[in-house]
Every structure is written in C-alpha cells, then in structure tokens.
Amino acid sequence: MKKRTKIIILSVMVLLLGVTGYLNIALNNQVTNPEPGVTTTASYFTAYRNDRESTRDQEMLYYDAIISSSSSTSEAIATAESAKLALVKQMETELIVEGLIKAKGFEDCVVTMTNQNVNVVVKSAKLNDTEVAKIVGVVQSQLGTSIENIKIIPVE
Known about the structure:
The chain is mainly α and 156 residues long. It has four helices and three strands; from the N terminus they run αααββαβ.
C-alpha cells in the first residue's frame, strides 16, 4: 500500500475510535443508577437465583467429572452419584417450596436449605403474624422442619 493510503486508513480508524469513546460516555451518562449500596428487590432475587444456579452448575460439573473419570475409584463414583442426586433433590424441593409460598400470595421468594435449617427470603416490606404462619405452614408441611429451624427474612 501507498503511504498516503495507510495514513488515511489510520486516520479513519482513530476517528472511529474517538466516536466510539464519545458514544460510550454519552450513553453511560444517560443511564440512571440507583443509589450506591441499595439493591432493588427484583435485582436481589434475580442475582441470587443466578448465583445459586451457576454454583450448582459448577457442582454438577465436578460430580460429572468424578463420575466419568477413569481414575476415580468405585467408592468415589458412588459418593459423587449420591451427592449429585441429593443436590438434584434439594433443588427440586426448594423450587416446590418457593412455588407454594408464591401461591400463598407472596410476590417472590427464595428458599435455601441446610441439613437442619431453612431460610426463606420473601419480597415484602414487613410480615404480619398471618403471613409468617402461612410461610411456616408451607415449610413444615413440605420439609417437616421444626419452627426453631425456620428463618424468614422480609426484603423490601
């Protein structure tokens, strides 16, 4: 290529880079951001579900890697298979409990379970005794957890 052609191409590329930078700044200034440190309820539930799903996907990949590895012992494979089945059962149970709580009139909720404890995060400014009783009733009927091991957290 001629030197003049190279200069023209380079100049056009620099001009396009400048326009791109200007548009990026202009568009970012138009986006309204919520106050720092304040998480909106919808984004909390969405972010939590996304984090939970990606973590569980990673766990499933680990279990699948152990199960399919030729160097895994039969005991390790059996443990990985049972852990994978337990995780699938927990995912299904959490989904069922979340659906039943939503069916009781709550807009959104997230349920997490450990061996003994159940945490329920509900989209609500505050909960009255009737609403708490509805949630506890669902959790106890589905999981058989005692009331001392159920924690209900309203999130506005």
